[in-house]
Amino acid sequence: MGDRFEGLAEQARALGDGDTTSAELVGRALERIAATAGTVNAFRLVRTEAALAEAEEADRRLAAGERLPLLGVPVAVKDDTDVAGEPTAFGCAGTFPPKAEDSEVVRRLRAAGAIVVGKTNACELGQWPFTEGPAFGDTRNPWSPAHTPGGSSGGSAAAVAAGLVPAALGTDGAGSVRIPAAWTHLVGIKPQRGRISTWPEPEAFQGITGIGPLARTVEDAALLLEVCSGNHRHDLHRPTPVAPRAAVGRDPGRLRIALSWKAAWTGTPRPLHPEVRAAVTDLARTLARLGHLVEEAEPDYGLIGLSFVPRATTGVREWTERVPDRSLLDRRTRDAARLGRLLSGRALRWARAAEARQQKRVGAVFGQYDVVLTPTTATPPPRIGTLAAMNGWRTDRAMIAACPYAWPWNVLGWPGISVPAGFSSAGLPLGAQLLGPEGGEARLISLAARLEDDLRWHERWPQLRAGA
In the annotation, is 78 catalytic? Predict the structure, then answer.
């Protein structure tokens, strides 16, 4: 079959036109997953028999004339996402019971006709920008197996980058979609809070975590975002609907773009790697060449980090209470859960109450600019094992230093997109982040699509590519 029908939208069109079958596409995905299990190691769980049976059923429906946005297309979800009949371990060791029901996002995937071929690896409770752990081993970057694909949605990113599936879902609580997108040469979208339902959680990790797509093209990311968008009746956050796919083909107009280098204060030094600065500067020049006004300007983040910590650690504590055997948890996880218990009262209430003030303070930048452009990360991807072997204090400092740019938008709940921004001198992928105000996904998607038309990043594949 070669390289036919690699993209999500491309596969959906080919199935609708009768140029391929779901059995063929799903079978190829399963073969590639198996072939790269010892190298990329993207998947925690593979639904081989169930996916093949669902592909046969999709082919019967297609033959009968039924058409849905993703009918018969293979996709993957992260290890924190409930799939009926499968465990949700979220990167943890131990034996977890199978879930009785699909999460709302998986229900929507199935309603669109997609076939979930498996669940991808994530670090323990999504806490770190790497995807390694005793429960599943090391997930490796298809661009350089010696390096991490990032985290916590590293398995989803590695699966898409290596061509195992055309697109996958991740979750983003501090950059966990955008960071691995940057480090694997993908498009990663963190939507507006509540755009994609987190049910059976009314909100995830005290509102900082959302679900978002990882794909090689803006069109594919927008398609996955569109079919997954919508709310369960018990969701706490229900944003005004947007039309992601329509935005792909829309001219964003001449935008005012703030190029921002300053990260929010954390008390930890955060030097910006010169090759990252150069790559993001080049992308800013591309935006200027495309007709946009680009000038350096900084959002006023204030002390937003003081709000992030109580929400994040409380979320970790809440999740550890569901783990069958807490003795198997990483010591850093147990320490975070203890801190979460200390901060889950008055400090958490203050953190939640401060959000509106923080949105007003940071959002002032959008009085003058339409989009904020930053690096996605401060460094290229680290080598496997660099952070995983550290103690809690050193892990936190190294994580903040490498990834200082993404997490404030989780506190605010606003949308952001990481797009490819080239490569380091060592051939490692780098990313740039397009950030918008509440409900601003459409503008960000339109701008990212125009960048993709110019830079053609999706035409470049990693050396470790399944089926190449």
Answer: yes
